[in-house]
Design brief:
By secondary structure, this protein is α+β, with helices and mostly antiparallel strands. It has helices at 2-8, 22-26, 89-95, 99-127, 238-241, 284-296, 317-322, 351-357, 359-363, 376-383; strands at 29-31, 39-46, 70-76, 79-88, 143-153, 156-161, 185-194, 197-202, 212-216, 219-223, 226-230, 248-252, 265-271, 276-281, 303-306, 326-327, 330-331, 341-344, 370-375, 408-412, 415-422, 430-433, 438-447, 460-461, 467-480, 487-490.
Amino acid sequence: LNGFYKQIYGDSLINLIPESAKFIKEVPFERRKKLGDYYNVPVVLQAEQGFTYNDGDGTAFALNGALAMGTKNAQVRGAEKVLQSQISYKAAAAATSNKEAFADATSTLFENMVESMSNRLELSSFYGGSSLGTGSGSGASGSSLGAATFARSTTTVTVTTANNHGLTTGDTVSFTDDSGNSVALSTGVVTVTGVKTFTATASASGTVAALSACTIGPFVKRSSTTAWYYVNRTEWSTGLWAGKVGAELQFYKDDNSTLINTVNMTISSIDPVYKRIGLTASTSQGVTDVMAVVEADFDGGIYVYFNGSKGKDFLGIDKIITTSGSLFGITNTTYTLFKGNEYTASGALSLSTIISATENAVAQGLMEDVCAYVPISAWNTLAAAQSGLRMYDQSYKNNVAENGFQKLSFYGANGKIEIEPHPIVKAGEVFIIPKKQFIRVGATDVTFQTPGMDSTEIFLQLPSNAGYEVRAYADQALLCMAPAKCTKVTGFTVT
């Protein structure tokens, strides 16, 4: 098996990285040696300041002396990722007759492993260190059913939604009125009366104004071992969750440090229409733990991470831009050239919004081409925007930008701005970055060779099962040399 692997694949598997992993294909990987636990990369934090001025009086005037540019080592800790897969003895036996049989039996396995590992690296490149999707029922930022009217007669709340609500009798919900005030329910359990209507029992008598925003809480309880997790519509990304059925998640309270579920929750389904994740747990304790927090502190928000990734993954673009304080061992509140920019927009996302968002970055030295990674949901609007800002010249290509097929290019104060849709970027976020300022550093890019072992040992014996294990491994982190040239945009209307 190991011999056939070398003959068939050699080092070519890295070429199987899918096109959807846009960022890691374009940002180079640099193998570096560690100093202790960290990779050290020198970055410039302030310019030379040793100037002396004179009015030209002809004197041998004294010099003020040198004030050298400020440099520090950015200390980057590599994050290890290991992906395990297995092949049975029977499948292995069928693959050993010749090279062609080996390729037929293993190509799907290796290609899927490369695709899965590449997807996780791409996801980490954007959201490493950040919540995958905060759940909250606070006002319009929640996962809304759309415009709705609801009224309360004594303790019965009747809700009529503009769209099909997707609920079934027995589901648990929470919602707020149009002022963002929680409508207190005694149990939160609903009775469905139609595809657009349901009732629930309030904890007190009274009335609720009509034309309110009806917002479902982060979880709808299906049974003792299943639940739905509703992601804020601004933080939803279908591409982020696609293909993640079977992945395990951990949930944290609104302080983003207290683990809620003592039992890991497994993704059982993805519902992009209602922007929700179906979850199961091995015992009822997982759902019980999470529901207790939701019902006690509904408006506080819940943070979600892949099992074991919180605090162990490398920092992605989102975390690099939004961190205030220590970033890679450098205090960016002191050295502001190492602090990213956050821009709050309003209204629909437009080309002019993106230009305006770059102003602070330009003022801090951004005079180079940038890429604006936008969510898929905003791409059609941008592609149909005014043509006056688009770039038309002899470099026209019918598959890049000008016809809006893949990318859109225009000029801002910094130079060229290239807008590119990315399936992982959340619906309410845009990242404007100079890709040349980013590098991936670490011990190794994606490999099937076990560190410290013979490079020909790819298939490892399973100690207690009839088969072999194959592992994909990566040790790397993402570093931005100039965070002040990067901008995160939020606040625009999410449709």
